[in-house]
Amino acid sequence: MEVKRKNSKKRTAILNALSSVKDHPTAEMLYAALKPEIPELSLGTVYRNLSILADEGLVVNVAHVAGQERYDARTDPHAHFVCKHCGQVIDVELPDMMTPLYAQVSEETGCVAESYKLSFNGLCENCNRKLTN
Amino acid sequence: MEVKRKNSKKRTAILNALSSVKDHPTAEMLYAALKPEIPELSLGTVYRNLSILADEGLVVNVAHVAGQERYDARTDPHAHFVCKHCGQVIDVELPDMMTPLYAQVSEETGCVAESYKLSFNGLCENCNRKLTN
DNA sequence: CTCTTTGCAAAGAGTTTGCAGGGTG
DNA sequence: CACCCTGCAAACTCTTTGCAAAGAG
After folding, report:
1. What are the distances in angstroms from CA B96 to CA B1, B66, B93, B102?
2. Which of the two residues, A3 and B66, has the higher pLDDT score?
3. Residues B14 and B71 in one domain
4. Separation in Å, CA A118 to CA A94, A95, B105
5. pLDDT single digits (tens) A7-60
6. How many domains does chain A have?
């Protein structure tokens, strides 16, 4: 059964912080960003609320980089690029080619697709320059 | 500088075990599968060798499910389906539509793509039947 | 009041690492 | 005989959880 959510300033602040940023932060990055503004904030609360927000579909895990989960408040289907050197995660604007394939996936596998994750891997512009000089 | 690899029966066994299976096992699953056959095997060795094999490109991380990394010895680009209920990971045979887009990704972002990960998410056939009855 | 949310600290889970001994070329 | 590989256990990192107090409706 469903839990009735109450108003939570912390949760709202976490969602706002995530929405206002495009670098797909980790829980710790969000914590560090909010801490100055909300000194009583604790890291456990960030984890807890990210999990709640993800359940509610307001937030999405876009990648797992160097052992840490990366979050995104942009929930429309879009791709990402993950730099294998610096770990940076950036948006890639490609037309959504995968959602139209859900029916085909279902036909092939019997599985019911509801979402997908697409991430490219390699070197970002900076790291490529630095490492290829 | 490069390390000169020596022959290692354990590493070979791990790669063989992974190659002979299509369920994208975790390190622990591989360990459990090999243990009867190689009783002196230790879990640390499985982790160490999976990491070496990944460096060499013989093995790939295809997904991170329920906090565990899933490995695959099939290294050609292909998609996966991850069941959000049972955590099963299965291959999806779709034409590779992403590799041809590397140039476009580079143009858009400046990043040099070398690989990609595509995974669909939802309920597998069994879980869907069980949960939708 | 009742039930959710939070801080804090401890617990958990998965993975990595140091070390001493064994194996390979 | 130099250097890689391994078992074992401890260490590490990220994330989750229990509890008592604070906050929302």
Report:
1. 34, 27, 9, 12
2. B66
3. yes
4. 11, 12, 13
5. 999 999 999 999 999 999 999 999 999 999 999 999 999 999 999 999 999 999
6. 2
Give the residue from A75, A103, A119 where a domain finishes. A75
CA distance A66 to B13: 27
DSSP secondary structure code for residue A5 in this structure: P
Question: Is A92 close to B108, i.e. CB distance below 8 A?
Answer: yes
| Residue owning tokens 């495009």 | A22
- Residue A46 and residue A1 share a domain: yes
CA distance A61 to A53: 11
Chain B residues with CB inside 8 Å of A85's CB? none
Residues 32-51 of B with CB under 7 A from strand D: 38, 40-45, 48-49
Task: Tokens for B116, please give them.
Answer: 């990609």
Residue A13 per-residue DSSP state = H
Q: Is A108 in the same domain as A69? A: no
Cite the DSSP H helix spans in chain B: 9-19, 27-34, 43-55, 102-109, 125-131
**Boundaries of domain holding A98:** 76-133
